[in-house]
Amino acid sequence: xxxxxxxxxxxxxxxxxxxxxxxxxxxxxxxxxxxxxxxxxxxxxxxxxxxxxxxxxxxxxxxxxxxxxxxxxxxxxxxxxxxxxxxxxxxxxxxxxxxxxxxxxxxxxxxxxxxxxxxxxxxxxxxxxxxxxxxxxxxxxxxxxxxxxxxxxxxxxxxxxxxxxxxxxxxxxxxxxxxxxxxxxxxxxxxxxxxxxxxxxxxxxxxxxxxxxxxxxxxxxxxxxxxxxxxxxxxxxxx
Amino acid sequence: xxxxxxxxxxxxxxxxxxxxxxxxxxxxxxxxxxxxxxxxxxxxxxxxxxxxxxxxxxxxxxxxxxxxxxxxxxxxxxxxxxxxxxxxxxxxxxxxxxxxxxxxxxxxxxxxxxxxxxxxxxxxxxxxxxxxxxxxxxxxxxxxxxxxxxxxxxxxxxxxxxxxxxxxxxxxxxxxxxxxxxxxxxxxxxxxxxxxxxxxxxxxxxxxxxxxxxxxxxxxxxxxxxxxxxxxxxxxxxxxxx
Lengths: 239, 242
Fold this sequence. Notes:
The complex is a heterodimer.
Chain A: E1 3-7, H1 12-23, E2 28-32, H2 43-48, E3 56-59, E4 62-65, H3 67-77, H4 90-123, H5 130-151, H6 166-176, H7 183-190, H8 194-206, H9 210-214, H10 216-238
Parallel strand pairs in A: 1-2
Antiparallel strand pairs in A: 1-3, 3-4
Helix pairs in contact in A: 1-3, 1-6, 4-5, 4-6
Chain B: E1 3-7, H1 12-23, E2 28-32, H2 43-48, E3 56-59, E4 62-65, H3 67-77, H4 90-124, H5 130-151, H6 166-176, H7 183-190, H8 194-206, H9 210-214, H10 216-241
Parallel strand pairs in B: 1-2
Antiparallel strand pairs in B: 1-3, 3-4
């Protein structure tokens, strides 16, 4: 029975797993759970993942959620997976775990906060919370600084590695979500971080052509959102 | 060279690492980094952990931070550790990874939000955020429900295990932080969750006597905080009557 991957290409951790599976030639069935349409709350999906989040995998009788756990499972289960994705050396592996753990309350929290406050709330006509937006940006900028000065200080990839690991896939997918911001905001936030920008390019190259293909849905959403925000801003100018 | 563990027993993940090392007879040196006195910001500690958080370990030349990564490393690097702490079976191990990951944005985030903003910040002169406290409590309650209905549905310990793993130590140490609340609030929050309450007892028992010993500082702080809160409450009552 083929591996089933329940995911949404708008979701950062979903994209990391999709890219990983395609890079490693893992045979799987992609089942889209549309989060902008709240399909993760449907009873059928809740029966698969009671946390009502994506991604989730079902491998025969075995169900698993949380993208870091899924990436580690796939790395260990499929013998064809190259060892740089999840190193067997204990020290190297521990550093990858460390970056993945750090990610939750740092890059992810900051990035999600910035997108929710600056894109999703306004697009849904909900009131802007300046304090929440400010705190989210602070968290994001701090995380980008730590990536620039610590996680990427010794190599093109995280934790000083010369080849990407599952941590690079996951964290770069997170940074890519910032594409949903206006071009001006995206550049304002990211342009000071030269190593981070290079790392994103290096990860894209290392996972070509799948990276761009899987990010297609995000780029489309980006173009739509930017057009909508521009139209709203035009309306406000007229008023 | 013995393992060095940089920790503060007021920190939930620090306690998890300390209890784990003690229960497995791992030879280590505990180096206290007092977070309420901001010792994590000293240049000496920054050289150990540039994130300026606890815990961190130094094993020879290797430095590591993030408690889950540390617990996993110790399980694998020290051969005497019993396998139930971090099973080699891929399915069981993956479930442990899953709950450890879930923890960050759920139980931990909720507990920290509530305890920091209602107790630690006001009593130590840091700015507190009542909205963050409210959101923390909401997230905490949701997380406790998920523990009760999902993570503990199939066994005495997390993810259906009959023996504790590193996930049980990590998450129970987090819940113990709620001991800093008033007795009334603590009981009101936890008492509806029978399985959670039992699981805490089972984890304590499985790691005795180290669990209580490592939590000693927390209980001392609890006593101090509760006395201060009681005094403040009497003062406020007297004021309002005057």
